[in-house]
């Protein structure tokens, strides 16, 4: 098969980790007789520098024309300390999500046996953790009307959801639960928020269409606790945009493998795959960044966007092998062992596929 | 001195744990020659049952007339599964906060050496943790306009903050930081929300009045991560209502001493002290609930509301002693040891003051 993949390397270590994911993807394509055309495009701080906006129209067209988008990371310290600057990389991210209609952010959290002791949590608390958050990504308080009144003395942000928005996200949640343990948790704050009550009643009404799925409803504050206490008690969780922002980041640190976690944002027009880590500006150009989260994001892309299960499994298997054999960058290296460079890890993966 | 304390025992185990806190407070008062008048009042499910509303006017008047409020817990399972029921205990809580002007929720998280191994986190991650959240409690999305349009198909919640609301909360934060390590963290989502940008600019403008305090600004998602990774890197944190709801609950489980954490809500007219745990309906009437969080809330009341530092220290000392000697309820009992009853723990504390 032939695939066109938009390649948004972004800022900081983005280009370096993307490079390794491309190498591995090309090797897999060759092995399984596919043809990949990569179409690079600018986004983030590098796009602001080049053309003045963080998500140029040209980039949008390249994404729309592609079968999937592979994304690195964006962000640069020169924009960090001023969230009121007129143009910022994050705006590009939000615009991209909205314009590409990426309404569901899929964030798995799972453990790698060889990394479990890196977790801040005790082994017995996290063993077996394998959960997935579906975060709504194009609605809620992120995109509602916001502004000032009273001469700037009062600020407001509106959180808005429609039943249709909840339904399409929840549908993905039910479907995902059906392929897993058939447990779905709807995270809301229905004891306080009207939008949460809409979420809850909408999901409740959908239960009858998925009689095999057991649905629980939990308040966001309770989930923030239980995620630290018993992360392995969760399976599929669905939630709105802001709760998802907070909880998925919280969840990402429990497994001890944050630097390895992939993610997907799926939507109406296309889907986008990216590591959950940031652009680590301090490491830019040093060839030390861990490329595995991006490589695993490519695996998600093969499986979910192209339906290529075997290809995805092959990538995951070689990543596991590299971890077991200690072919890892400095963030994961065992005491006394030598760290591999970003590009060495990629080369090793390609050679061992 | 003479003190009048409104006593809101609430639901579930509330009356039982309040009872022990009253015993200990009375013993302290006797020892230090104070006179306490307790004025009981209804709130929560028991108030709904008795008079149809969760925060009756009479209760409000009793609180307004008191020097402080000691609060147990509210909530009953018959209201749990229906956040859309017309009358619910939580509404009483929100109304009480608003009417009493309790704008700052003070939530310390600290470790007890003897309980540190109860934590889901590894010992080396939490040793030395001693942080305090100041959560804004009467503004934000909890109290903004909320409702439906489009025949119920669209729901909205408005998040609103004024500069004055941010200032009075932040002032408490700066003042608290001055009494501790002079480190203040402002938690917001200023890269997305206009209310967060108001928070940030307001706090930034106040920095010059507290030149000794070092202020950091962190995004809520990053804090949700770092709280699990390095809780002992924080000291005083200030944040808005909803972020505070999520983060204080998350923080409460890291120390392994959740059942012992007290809290205060301070405001314009009075201040209120309560354990952070809930009403544990399953344990109601069994005389097994842990009263220590409520006893420690009374200690906070002596110190913060009445300025009685020595009295507070005496309560904390005897609580520590009970923990060290294993005079604890079943939730904390060591393997093989016998659990004490709620009232036995209280009796022991009184006898050992
Ligand atoms: C950068 C920021 C706008 C973004 C978000 O809040 O969605 C990020 O935190 C994320 O989760 O992808
Ligand atoms: C019961 C609920 C309304 C309340 C809140 O969200 O404030 C509770 O979670 C709390 O933190 O005191």
From TrEMBL, chains A, B:
The organism of origin for this protein: Flavobacterium muglaense
E.C. number: 1.1.1.85
Entry keyword set: Amino-acid biosynthesis, Branched-chain amino acid biosynthesis, Cytoplasm, Leucine biosynthesis, Magnesium, Manganese, Metal-binding, NAD, Oxidoreductase
Purpose: Catalyzes the oxidation of 3-carboxy-2-hydroxy-4-methylpentanoate (3-isopropylmalate) to 3-carboxy-4-methyl-2-oxopentanoate. The product decarboxylates to 4-methyl-2 oxopentanoate.
Biochemical pathway: Amino-acid biosynthesis; L-leucine biosynthesis; L-leucine from 3-methyl-2-oxobutanoate: step 3/4
Residue positions binding substrate: 97, 107, 135, 221
Complex and partners: Homodimer.
Name the UniProt record assigns to this protein: 3-isopropylmalate dehydrogenase
Residues engaged in binding Mg(2+): 221, 245, 249
GO molecular function terms listed in the Swiss-Prot or TrEMBL record: 3-isopropylmalate dehydrogenase activity; magnesium ion binding; NAD binding
Residues at the site labelled Important for catalysis: 142, 189
Domain of life: Bacteria
